[in-house]
Amino acid sequence: MVQVSFATIAVIAGMLAQTTVAAPSDKRAASCSFPNPSSSTDVKFDAARSIKAGETFDGKNLRYSRGVKCGGQKEGGDKDAVFLLESGATLANAVIGKDQNEGVHCKGPCTIRNVWFEDVCEDAITIRQSSGTSTITGGGAKNADDKVVQHNGGGQSDAYQLRYRPPTSI
């Protein structure tokens, strides 16, 4: 006879409540062609670039970094991110380069469109929200030792046509 404890059920329910949904989209055919902007146009931030609520930052397909080598799989904070999105902010058309520890952090429901991660250090995208829906459309990640998307908190995250290689966890 199999017995399942309440603690086991609670852990499974908690994991299911914080899942990221990866759904197909009819918007365009999937492609795994990662952009490769010229290094002469690279943008290095000394601190996380904040994007305010309601604001859209169009990265114009340039490469963005923090100018630091990856420190491995230790959890960083908002201060280590390349972009820090407030609740309701949008980041579009950007390439996150390899010289960073954390890619994009969302402090509430956010929208991420056509953002590419060349070499994922800790996590490409970290979403911290208590409710609502964050949407990731297009873009992709490669060389992720850990997770591409980490969702902490409530609500949900929807990912459409997010490509990654080699296969990793989302």
From TrEMBL:
Top-rank taxon, per record: Eukaryota
InterPro entries membership: Pectate_lyase_PlyH/PlyE-like, Pectin_lyas_fold, Pectin_lyase_fold/virulence
Reaction(s) catalysed by this chain's protein: Eliminative cleavage of (1->4)-alpha-D-galacturonan to give oligosaccharides with 4-deoxy-alpha-D-galact-4-enuronosyl groups at their non-reducing ends
Record's keyword annotation contains Metal-binding: no
Ranges for region Disordered: 132-160
Annotated signal sequence range: 1-22
EC numbers, comma separated: 4.2.2.2
Summary of the function given for this chain in its UniProt record: Pectinolytic enzyme consist of four classes of enzymes: pectin lyase, polygalacturonase, pectin methylesterase and rhamnogalacturonase. Among pectinolytic enzymes, pectin lyase is the most important in depolymerization of pectin, since it cleaves internal glycosidic bonds of highly methylated pectins. Favors pectate, the anion, over pectin, the methyl ester.
Family according to the record: Belongs to the polysaccharide lyase 3 family.
Protein name, entry field: Pectate lyase
Organism: Thanatephorus cucumeris (strain AG1-IB / isolate 7/3/14) (Lettuce bottom rot fungus)
